[in-house]
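Sync notes, pocket subgroup
Present: LS, DG
LS reminded everyone that the earlier model was apo-only. Rerun requested with magnesium ion included. Inputs:
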Amino acid sequence: MKTEIVFIDENNIDQDIIDRAGDIIKRGGLVAFPTETVYGLGGDALNRESSRKIYAAKGRPSDNPLIVHIADMEALDRIVSDIPASALKLADYFWPGPLTMIFFKSDAVPYDTTGGLDTVAVRMPVDSVARAFIRASGGYVAAPSANISGRPSPTSARFVEEDMDGRIDMIIKGDDSRIGLESTIVDITSEKPMILRPGYITKEMLEEVVGEVTIDPTILDAACTERPKAPGMRYRHYAPKGDLTVVKGPEDEVVEYINLACASMESSGKKVGVIATGENVSNYSCANIKCVGSRTDEEEIAHRLYSILREFDDEDMEVIYSEAFDEGGLGGAIMNRLLKAAGHQVIDLRQEEEE
Ligand code: TXA
Ligand code: MG
């Protein structure tokens, strides 16, 4: 398939291009587009064939449901069977924005879009290109992240092209994703809202609006044997090609550990990369070091993390070490993605001392 590649300036949106993209969706085709979290791979959410095409283009298991993107609150009624009061409150505060809510679905949404579930995930992005595109597409765009299944979500148009060129009808190239991590997912179908995937909107932020919020226990505990409620959290997502290990502990010991490990790997001929914070970057003696941002600037770390994992892939890094980050606030979402990318391979220097 020939993929048409177009550029859109978010400060001067070309409506002709947006309308062309919308027509592709209305005719059952696929278009990748920017959002504030990560790039999405869009199809008509109400057309079962489109959803099937999305799974095929990504190489994604079809039991992993898609998020339906809307641009206006009025669009919600048609796709959900009930709007709980908590959802209205959350929408009021966090929509448009990086929050996805799980509702009971209406008959308008095919099971192909929801992976066979009776619930549907809905998000209203804030990105102006995304919103114009959704409106031009008829109002309901099903979109997973625009990566091949198992690769880090694309936070830059060049990564979308890397994965999707030749597989879909059009790629809309815009700016790099401002946030860089996928949306927070909250299930509001039960009495207490439950976070199924941590993201930019934190538990504390949600609780200020709707009171107590729980977190799917499988997110907090890697050893937990229950099934995660968001089917996508079951898979080892975001996996870089290299063998990634996260090193936790006092910062100077982490640096020392990584330096020794790198030296030993490099002497056995391996290509080794390090994900370092700005505070420590000059203390490493390894060959390939990438700075993910200051330890105190979690937004910058979230913004950079996936592109660093992709860059290491492109450089065929065989072994990667990363510093660990604080888990409060946005750090919880960052560590969730990093630990998943590492397949939960962690060296905890504190534990080793205690033993
Ligand atoms: O920020 C985002 O959410 C991005 C952009 C493009 O909007 N999209 C995204 O989609 O991350 P995807 O498909 O990569 O992740 C969707 C997640 C999966 O883990 C999936 O299992 C979960 O949402 N999900 C979708 N529908 C669900 C449902 N009805 N119940 C539980 N989890 C659901
Ligand atoms: Mg994804």
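DG: DSSP finds twelve helices and 16 strands in the chain.
LS: Residues 4-215 form a domain with the DHBP synthase fold (CATH 3.90.870.10).
Action: DG to write up.
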